[in-house]
Design brief:
Strand order of the largest sheet: 3-2-1-4-5-8-7-6
Number of helices: 9
Shape: globular
Order of helices and strands: EHEHEHHEHHEHEEEHH
Structural class: alpha/beta
Number of strands: 8
Radius of gyration: 18 Å
Number of domains: 1
CATH architecture: 3-Layer(aba) Sandwich
Distance between the termini: 37 Å
């Protein structure tokens, strides 16, 4: 587990999990915008071992995905990588990760970052009601959407535990934790599209950091032939 040195007061830590298959510029830009808007001290990028809600065919090995994340965040003092889920192995459940982080950093305040599409499906997650008590959630969306779906997307079973603060565009949980809506830049980049380009032998320049592109080419990831210009 990465070591974090608390500053004065409560450390505010963002959590961005995912397969990062591969990590790309939209991941990095979203994390930076959330960090700035929510005044976070650090953001932890946590590559999953085995995602519970995604097909694993075409999933690159954890070692390669971890290496690409490390390359991608190099040079940003606010970004760190955690191997917590990879070391735990098996299915990567967010609630287990949050409990482990709170046990290791009991004085920190956590902000779990996820997209609106994932938030709409949170009722399918393991022990999802506990997630709201363990951390704040930052729900990101592109400019085409507004905050109206936030309350509607909240699972009916837990709505009684929340108050909606319309002016602040956030939901407040009975524990004091919040579900915060945040718009992010509309960067139409996806890992699946990058993989498709690599399968075709097309360039991925300006879709991933340069050092990640070099790593993919060097290790011939995702395709038999990679074209780089």
């Amino acid at each position: 587990m990465v070591k974090l040195t608390p500053a004065a007061g409560v450390m505010r830590i963002g959590i961005l999990g995912g397969t990062f298959n591969p990590i790309h510029l939209a991941h990095l830009r979203s994390a930076e915008e959330v960090r700035e808007a929510q005044r976070l001290d650090k953001i932890l990028f946590i590559p999953s071992a085995t995602p519970p809600h995604k097909r694993t065919d075409g999933l690159m090995t954890a070692a390669h995905r971890l290496a690409m994340v490390r390359l991608a965040i190099r040079g940003n003092p606010h970004f760190r990588v955690s191997t917590l889920e990879i070391e735990r192995r098996g299915r990567s459940y967010s609630v287990d990760t949050l409990r482990a982080l709170r046990a290791r950093l009991p004085g920190a305040q956590f902000f779990f970052i996820l997209g609106m599409d994932a938030f709409r499906e949170i009722s399918t997650w393991k022990d999802y009601p506990s997630i709201f008590a363990l951390c704040n959630l930052v729900v990101t969306s592109r400019p085409a959407y507004d905050d109206a779906p936030l309350l509607a997307a909240l699972p009916v079973a837990v709505r009684a535990e929340f108050c909606y603060r319309a002016q602040a565009k956030r939901l407040e949980h009975r524990t004091g934790n919040q579900v915060i809506f945040q718009r992010i830049s509309d960067l139409d980049i996806s890992a699946s599209a990058i993989r498709h380009r690599l399968h075709r032998g097309s360039s991925i320049r300006y879709l991933v950091p340069t050092n990640v592109e070099r790593y993919i080419v060097q290790h011939r990831l995702y395709a038999r032939r990679v074209v780089s210009h």
